[in-house]
Structures are given as structure tokens and as C-alpha cells.
Design brief:
The protein has 815 residues and is mainly beta. The protein is built from three helices and 47 strands.
Length: 815
């Protein structure tokens, strides 16, 4: 696989945009700032300096108060994450209306959607439409959902296209996570806890402070071990049709062990030159994504379907109830040239390392920022999506390395016009190999394996871009505009190898495809911001976004496969939003409101084909999203210590001009009436239908009360209620694949010692014990018959479920 060398091209654009929206900070005190009596035009442009307890965001690649940034953003403070013991990205979904995120088994191992736009996990070749930026380092493979989160300063969830300020692949938004930096004074802190439902034990801590004059360091780490909160109903031993033994993986599902560490070094080289290095590593071992699967039976059946004539397990059911059967594959199968299968027990082994070197030079006229990044992860796993009776199993090796560099120049002129410009480059190499064992047949005497197919896949990618932003101050108005010009290049490959000779007709070895993808794009933005006073912002913005196309390295290598069938085009976003945010009633009440409307052209979509055990990737015609989001945060002066908060989002998402794959077993009467092939229809019309993971309404309301009990003790009470309306969780919009509306309750009570030197807390998350499905796929060979004809039978589904109820007791210290 060759390494692509791209020539950097400069755009002719002259201005770039500040972008807008609403923010919901779960702690009301994060909205507070120091009072300012100056409300003239000068104050409108020179907003008050952020207070110590106020969230500062970097959505426009510069520090500014949340109230001043015309950005569609939900900002969550590190304190709120600690209040509810949030340590996983998937747990953030409850805190952010219209965010649906969860683990998955194949491809990217993550399904992340925002405002109904995102990328499912199916194809390993896809970049995520909702990307991650961790400590300034862009990550878009999706497996970052596995990284433990701890010692966090804040999380910023930016909504809608973010092409201008963030390197690539942010058509739907991004999740920016910033860890705490070293302190000027010595500090040490930590916390340890126990989760009763999952039998989870965890400990985390940090040491921070100066090493020498101008040189500081911070070391933080976290360790956790969990048995899992889900029950495993599989038998202790189960015989497959060949008489080989399968064994229950464990009594519980969903557990794991993780250790993560982070070292930060901060050096003031000169009064105007600062260098900061953040480097971290994570070790994670668990039962794999399929450890949180539940079986949903097709068409409302109450008994699981047989697979290829093999009866279902008597220990399986058809309900999302926290109970499912999970067994190993026979050790004889694992030992017979089944790569990455280890001892046959379901598992995932994830290792990750990253380093970010950020340099800042501040002068009177030009500020220069350089961000040099390295990111690597390696994951091997063994998954089975059909329970103990049938071996619909596959192993994977995913190995990714990325090197990136971003260089920015920000002017600081005395005049009304200032310029931000910069360059971005990233190179990545991805290796994705997979074997599958999906038919229980005797070992092949020639190849010495039971496996059904074996494939090696991967790509090498280069991304280069240049961006320019101009900001013009016009009294109380600020006009900003500009663009990012991007060049994307990707070389992909697929190869199949001989496996079991019984399947050489359907899954032959010796097939090899290569693909060279090239594209370029200019994404402009423009924003008009109006500030009648220091604490009020109104704005309107127009944006475009771009996510590069490529090649589906997860397509099935069957005799009907082709290189052309694996290609998919670039995804484009275009639209705008208007917003208001203001502080009222003596700055006690923060109000934010955003209205948006975006069209996604050539939306990248993926579906699972349970017959070929392959992933189909393509482009939908258009997806339109429009809606309104709002939040309020109120510091109740009449009752010191009480803060109230609420956020709500209404989202109307609809497909337009899109004809795509039918679900397995969908009949003509059920809408599978497009594209007649060989006497049966193969596609359905999605026009006017709501896409998956796009709830129409989501909201959250809560309160925090913080009050002294004595000179040495303080009590903090917090509670939040979140509600999400129903949504499809299958990509083919199966009528039996709908997550019904649900309500979750979170609460915590914390007793603090003097000066917060110690604390003890009782924390409850998802106290209503809602088992929420984030995504699902058909289980191979359990139905799907008669697709596109008059009589059909739908397959059973394997559904990925969010964490159930958890109650923690936690102790902490801080000096």
C-alpha cells in the first residue's frame, strides 16, 4: 500500500466564520461572571474577563466566555462529570440532548449520532461524522469511545458542521475533551468508589504542581475493574452440532478492567513562549462489544428463530431485559487457524497511546500556535452476535497510527480587522483484518481451519488543508467569514485468503482489490454577531461542511464483489442557524436559544447484509435536519446555594431523494418495491422518512443545592431528569427496530469536609433502570427470507444496550 503524497493548495478565500449556537452548562455557576456596569458599545466588544468559576470555550480556536461565543455548543464542566461519576463517552449521551452514542461490535466499534446525523459502526473504512478532539488532537475512527475519561477540565459538544476550525470530518459536530493542566501550586487529589450493580471498583488520582520556576507537571491516572451489570443466561456447557463444547464466558456480562495514565508537562520557555506536552496511554480488557448485546426477535416473535436449521438456545429470550446468553466458541475452533480467537472466549483487548505537543508564542501583533500530535490504537477482539446456539462469530485486528500537525496564526491588531489563518496535515495508516466462523462444519483437512472466510483490509490516508478567517469589528457588530480548502487522498486495499473449502464458492480466497480515492473541497462560512451589551449575544451564521469519501474495506469479498461497489462519495453539509444567548435578572438567569436548518448531500450510509456477512456502504440523496434548541440556567439569589437548569431540543430530520436497501424479509407490501433484480425487489424508498438515531424531542431538567452544615461541613445535593422520544435504532428503519420513549433519573448527595479536603458521596445514575438500545443489526441466517417479494420473514436482531442503573459510593480527598 503506497503512501499518498499530496500537494498543498491554497484557497482564494478571504474570510472565515465564527459559528453560532446555544450552550447548556449543567452547573449554573459555570454561567456566572463578574458583574459589569459598562453596557456601551466598547463593553460589548471587550467582554468581561472570565471569572474563575466560568466555563471558557475554545470553539473558535481562542479562549472566550461561553456567553460570547456564537457557537452551537453544550459545555459540561469537569465538576458535573465528577458529581455523576461519568468516566465514559457513552455516559455523556444522557447529558446532551439529541446525542445518541454507544459501542458496537464491527467496523469502527462505535455508533455516534448528533441531531440525527452520524456514522454507524459497520464499515471500518468510514470516518465518523461526529469526531473527537482530545486535548487538541483530532480523532475520527470512533474507537475513542472506549477511552476512560478522568481529571477532565470540561467537555464541549459542538453541533452542526465545524469545518473551518477543526481539521476534518466534522459534518455533524464534534466532542472536544480537555483534561486538566498543571497548577502553579502543589496539589494532590483522588477518589475511589464502588458500583453496586456492576460490582465496579475504581480509583483515580492526580499530583500537580511546579517542578522549577516556570516549569510545571501533572500526573493523573485511573484504574477500574467491573464484573458487569448484565446477566449471562448461557448454560455452563453447551454442545454445538459437531459435539464440540462451548462454555459460558462468565456469570455476568458487560464487565472489564481498564488502566489509564496521563502526564502533562507545561514550560514557560520565555514570558511569551509556552510549550505543553500531554501524553497518555490506556489499557482496556473486557468481554467485547457483544458482551452488552440483547436479542430482539423479528416481527414481534416471542421465541428466537432457528439459524440454518439449528434450533435456538433454550436460554435465549426475545426481550431487552439485561439477560442474554453468551458463550465461547469451541477451543478446537479457536486453535485451528482462527486468527485473534485466543482461547475462544469473547473478549476485546484495546491499547492506545497519544502525545500532543502544543506551542504558543504570544506577541503584541501575532500569536502563533503549533499542535503536533501522535495517536495510536490497537484492538483485537472475538465477538459472537447470535448467542450460545449458533456461531455467528468473527475476530478483528484494528491497528491505526496517525501523525498530525496544525499551525495557526492569529493577529491581534489595534484596528477593527483581525485575521486567523493556518495549515493542517494528517497522515494515517489503518490495518483491519478479520476472520469469521459462521457455519458449524467439520475442520477442513486441507486448510486446517473451521473458519468461513479470512480477509485483510486497510488504507493509508493523507489530509491537507488551509484555512483563513477574517473578523471585522463594526461597533456592536462583528462580521466574520472565511473558508477551509481541503485535499483528501486515500489508498485502500482488500484481500481474501483460502479458508474452509466448503465455502470457497460463496467466499473464495484470492480476491484482491485496491482503490485510490482523491477529492478536494472548499467549505466557506460567514457569521454576523450583534452584542448590544456585554452579556447578550445574537448571531446568524451560514456554514458548509465536508467529509471525504473513500472505499468500504468491510465489503464482502464474494464472487459478485467489485472495486466499484466498494466506493462511496464525499459527504457535504450546507445550512445555517440563528441564536440568542443572554444573562438577565442581575446575571442570575442565563438563556440560550438556537434555531438551525442543514442539508446533508450524499450522506454516507451503511447497512448490514446478513446473507453475505458484509457491509454495504453508499450515499443517500439528502438528509435535512432542522430544529430548535434552548436552555436556561438560574442561580436563585433568594435561596443561596440553589441553582436550577433545563435544556430541550426539538429536531425534525428527514431523508430526501434516497432509495436504499430493504431490511431482510421486507415484503413489497411493507415498502420493498424498488429496483427489481432477478424477480425480487432489493430497495425501498426512504424519502420523507426519519433517519435512525434521530429522536424528535430530548430534554433534561435538574437542580443543585449546595449549603454549609457547619463551619467544617458542607452538603451538596444534585438531581437531573432526562427524557428522549422514540427513534429507529436500525439503519434500514425496521418497524420492529424502534426504541420507545424513555426517562432517566440521576441524583447525587455529597458531604464535603473543610476546604473540600475530603468528601463522601452517594451517586445514582439511570435510577429508572432504562435499558436503551443505541443500535442493532440482523443476526445472520435467522430469517430475512422473501425480501422484495409478497411473503417475507424478518430476521432476529442483536441490539447494543446502554448501561443500566448504577449506584456508587465514593470517597475523595484534595490537598
Amino acid at each position: 500500500m503506497g503512501i499518498v503524497r499530496c500537494k498543498l493548495a491554497l484557497s482564494a478565500s478571504v474570510f472565515a466564520i465564527g459559528f453560532g449556537s446555544l450552550a447548556f452548562a449543567p452547573h449554573v455557576q459555570a454561567q456566572e461572571a463578574q458583574a459589569s456596569d459598562q453596557q456601551d458599545s466598547t463593553a460589548a466588544q471587550d467582554a468581561p474577563t472570565p471569572a474563575a468559576n466560568e466555563i471558557v470555550v475554545t470553539a473558535r480556536r481562542r479562549d472566550e466566555r461561553l456567553i460570547d461565543a456564537p457557537v452551537a455548543i453544550t459545555a459540561i464542566s469537569g465538576d458535573m462529570l465528577e458529581d455523576y461519576s461519568v468516566s465514559r463517552v457513552s455516559d455523556l449521551a444522557t447529558m446532551v440532548p439529541n446525542l445518541v452514542a454507544g459501542k458496537a461490535a464491527s467496523g469502527s466499534s462505535a455508533s455516534i449520532f448528533l441531531r440525527g446525523v452520524g456514522s454507524t459502526a459497520l464499515s471500518a473504512g468510514f470516518d465518523q461524522s461526529v469526531s473527537f478532539v482530545i486535548d487538541g488532537l483530532p480523532m475520527s475512527r470512533g474507537r475513542e469511545i472506549s477511552l476512560p475519561q478522568y481529571d477532565i477540565a470540561n467537555v464541549q459538544v459542538l453541533k452542526g458542521p465545524q469545518a473551518l476550525f477543526f481539521g476534518k470530518n466534522t459534518t455533524a459536530g464534534l466532542i472536544s475533551i480537555t483534561s486538566n493542566s498543571p497548577t502553579d501550586e502543589f496539589e494532590v487529589g483522588g477518589r475511589a468508589g464502588y458500583g453496586f450493580e456492576a460490582r465496579e471498583k475504581y480509583v483515580q488520582g492526580f499530583v500537580s504542581g511546579p517542578i522549577t520556576d516556570g516549569f510545571r507537571a501533572r500526573l493523573a491516572g485511573r484504574y477500574s475493574h467491573s464484573d458487569g451489570a448484565f446477566k449471562n443466561s448461557a448454560a455452563e456447557t453447551y454442545l454445538n452440532p459437531l459435539g464440540l463444547e462451548r462454555h459460558r464466558n462468565a456469570d455476568r456480562r458487560g464487565g472489564g478492567e481498564a488502566f489509564s495514565g496521563r502526564l502533562t508537562l507545561d514550560w514557560d520557555v520565555t514570558p511569551t513562549f509556552n510549550l505543553q506536552l500531554k501524553t497518555g496511554a490506556t489499557w482496556l480488557d473486557d468481554g467485547g462489544p457483544t458482551d452488552v448485546l440483547e436479542r430482539i426477535c423479528g416481527s414481534g416473535r416471542t421465541t428466537p428463530a432457528a439459524a440454518n436449521g439449528i434450533p435456538p438456545s433454550p436460554n435465549a429470550d426475545c426481550r431487552v431485559n439485561g439477560v442474554s446468553d453468551s458463550s465461547s466458541i469451541p477451543v478446537e475452533v479457536a486453535d485451528a487457524n482462527y486468527r485473534y480467537a485466543r482461547d475462544g472466549r469473547m473478549y476485546a483487548r484495546f491499547r492506545s497511546q497519544y502525545a500532543v505537543l502544543t506551542g504558543n508564542i504570544d506577541t503584541d501583533t501575532i500569536d502563533v500556535t503549533s499542535i503536533t500530535g501522535y495517536y495510536h490504537f490497537k484492538q483485537t477482539d472475538l465477538n459472537n452476535v447470535s448467542g450460545e446456539a449458533y456461531p455467528a462469530s468473527f475476530t478483528q485486528l484494528a491497528d491505526f497510527k496517525q501523525y498530525s500537525e496544525e499551525l495557526r496564526f492569529q493577529s491581534d491588531f489595534d484596528g477593527p480587522l483581525n485575521i486567523l489563518t493556518g495549515l493542517f496535515y494528517a497522515h494515517g495508516d489503518f490495518l483491519f483484518n478479520t476472520d469469521a466462523y459462521i457455519f458449524p462444519v467439520p475442520i477442513d483437512p486441507v486448510t486446517g481451519t473451521y473458519t468461513t472466510f479470512k480477509r485483510d483490509n486497510g488504507f493509508s490516508t493523507d489530509s491537507m488543508s488551509v484555512f483563513v478567517q477574517g473578523t471585522l469589528e463594526l461597533g456592536k457588530f462583528e462580521l466574520s467569514g472565511g473558508a477551509r480548502y481541503s485535499i483528501e487522498a486515500r489508498d485502500s486495499y482488500q484481500r481474501s485468503y483460502p479458508a474452509h473449502s466448503a465455502f470457497s464458492g460463496a467466499f473464495p480466497g484470492g480476491i484482491a482489490f485496491t482503490d485510490r480515492f482523491r477529492d478536494e473541497n472548499l467549505s466557506p462560512e460567514v457569521t454576523l454577531r450583534y452584542k448590544p451589551g456585554a452579556d447578550t449575544t445574537l448571531y446568524a451564521s451560514y456554514k458548509q461542511g465536508f467529509k471525504a469519501g473513500g472505499y468500504n474495506i468491510s465489503q464482502a469479498l464474494t464472487p459478485a464483489a467489485s472495486a466499484e461497489a466498494g466506493r462511496y462519495g464525499s459527504e457535504l453539509a450546507e445550512g445555517g442557524e440563528v441564536g440568542l444567548r443572554t444573562l438577565a435578572f442581575g446575571r442570575d438567569l442565563a438563556i440560550n436559544l438556537t434555531v438551525y436548518n442543514y442539508d446533508y448531500t450524499n450522506l454516507q450510509v451503511q447497512t448490514f447484509d446478513p446473507v453475505t456477512i458484509g457491509l454495504i456502504a453508499g450515499n443517500a440523496g439528502t438528509l435535512r435536519t432542522r430544529g430548535i434548541e434552548g436552555d436556561v440556567n438560574w442561580t436563585v439569589s433568594a435561596l443561596p446555594g440553589l441553582t436550577l437548569r433545563a435544556a430541550a431540543a426539538y429536531n425534525d430530520a428527514k431523508y430526501k431523494n434516497y432509495v436504499g436497501q430493504c431490511y431482510g424479509g421486507q415484503t413489497v407490501a411493507e415498502g420493498c418495491d424498488q429496483q427489481l433484480v432477478g424477480g425480487a425487489y432489493t430497495a425501498q424508498d426512504y424519502d420523507g422518512r426519519t433517519p435512525p438515531k434521530a429522536p424528535e424531542f430530548a430534554g433534561r431538567v435538574g437542580a443543585t443545592f449546595d449549603a454549609p452544615l457547619s463551619n467544617a461541613l458542607r452538603l451538596t445535593l444534585s438531581g437531573d431528569v432526562s427524557h428522549t422520544s422514540s427513534y429507529y435504532f436500525t439503519d434500514t428503519l425496521r418497524p420492529d427496530g424502534i426504541q420507545s420513549a424513555f426517562t432517566k433519573y440521576d441524583a447525587s448527595i455529597t458531604l464535603h469536609g473543610q476546604d473540600d479536603r475530603w468528601s463522601i458521596a452517594l451517586i445514582g445514575r439511570n435510577l429508572s433502570n432504562e435499558l436503551v438500545v443505541t443500535s442493532a443489526n440482523d443476526i445472520p441466517f435467522t430469517g430475512g427470507n422473501g425480501t422484495g417479494t409478497t411473503v417475507g420473514s424478518t430476521a432476529d436482531m442483536s441490539a447494543f444496550v446502554e448501561n443500566p442503573r448504577e449506584i456508587y459510593v465514593e470517597v475523595g480527598f484534595h490537598f
